[in-house]
Design goal:
By secondary structure, the chain is α+β, with helices and mostly antiparallel strands. The chain has three domains: 4-113, Aminopeptidase (3-Layer(aba) Sandwich); 154-301, 3-Layer(aba) Sandwich (Aminopeptidase), CATH 3.40.630; 311-402, SCP2 sterol-binding domain (Nonspecific Lipid-transfer Protein, Chain A, 2-Layer Sandwich), CATH 3.30.1050.10. It contains ten helices and 21 strands. The chain has a seven-stranded mixed β-sheet with strand order 1-2-3-4-5-16-6, with helices on both faces. Helix 4 (165-180) crosses helix 5 (191-198). The protein is globular and about 70 Å long. It comes from Streptomyces pharetrae CZA14. This is N-acetyltransferase domain-containing protein. Acetyl-CoA binds at residues 85-87, 93-98. Keywords: Acyltransferase, Transferase.
Length: 424
Amino acid sequence: MTDSAVIDIRAVTEDDLPAWTRTWGNGYLRPYTEHSVDAIRATARQDRLIGAFDMDRCVGTYRSTPQELTVPGGAVLPVSAVSKVSVAGTHRRRGLLSRMVATDLRGAFERGEPLAVLDAAQYPLYGRYGFGPATAMAWFEIDVHRARLDPGRTADVSGVLQVDAREYLKAAPAVYERLRAVQHGALRRDEQWWLDATGQRPEGAAERPEPFFALHIDPDTGEADGLLCFSAEETWGSMLPRSPLWIRDLVAVSSRAEAALLRYAVTVDWVATVHLPYRAPDTLLPLWLGDPRAARVSALSDYMWLRVLDTPRALSARTYGVEGGLVLEVTDAAGYAAGRWSLQGGPDGASCVRTGRAPDLRIDVRDLSALYLGDDSATRLAALGGTEELRPGALARADAMFRTGRRPWSPRAVLGRRYQAGAP
């Protein structure tokens, strides 16, 4: 057995890509193909690929990508988005993940990225590195026959336009950008993302059937203000249609567009069940149905995890629910976010500077990260043990300041063949 100290943690080179891709595929149960290497290579210029190498064998993978995150109030911060993390089963419990995380977080801090984000495949892993669950996701299954929507009521779907992939690609990015400007928790979608989502990327485009696309057109402006992408499978039983429909992406700038697009999906001919993933738990979508109980929550989970690296920059970038001040003593084993900070903030902006004043709250960086987007409360985190009230009333003040009117949401889309709700 190789001593873990001699396993090399380093940036991945062009020659390393096939071995790195195969190791990542093994970890995620994805068969290795030449196309999978090409897909990694296509994004490698902007990504930071890290590998763990035992002699000439890749035994661990890690990727981070420069991203942008919308925070409460609409400001956009550069972040390091972590993905494709794996350690070969033959090399676990040797600290390889810890070394890769440490390498990447140090690089992110030095590059001036105040936050890091990731989607945690396993809950217990990332808290030890200062990440906290910052958003949650709900998955719905809609029973079409109980939804009490009449397919003949064209007013319910007024403004919806069926389009092909090219028409969709022309309008959809602008719709998403309008939402991203106001939706805290949203990440950037670049051109490559949209090409993948619509099957317009030249390599590998023929590997999967094209989904269905629709836009909602604002009657007042003539511009698209909502987008819908879905796939469906014709299914019958005893001469009755029982087709499932899987919503892959649904984004709307207005309530009118959101309602019309959902109602359109639920009234597609032959569909019996609509699967709706990746929504904020307080989504309004079920309430656009005639009977909201037709939308059953099939899964509820933490989703995007966040890690504060630069405390003053992160806290001063967002707005707060009420005017107030807090002195936070942040603990961080890695040191990045640690310190005693004076936060003054409100609906119009904030400032955060180092201070020598006595703290109101002592908070671990994991709790601060979970609190940052407004999806948790300081009172709840204190009950779990990671936050301590040092001045009476500080927890209530923190709750009032950090909470947001709507829960954070990072709009996600289902790409390729994989669908969390059970589609092929």
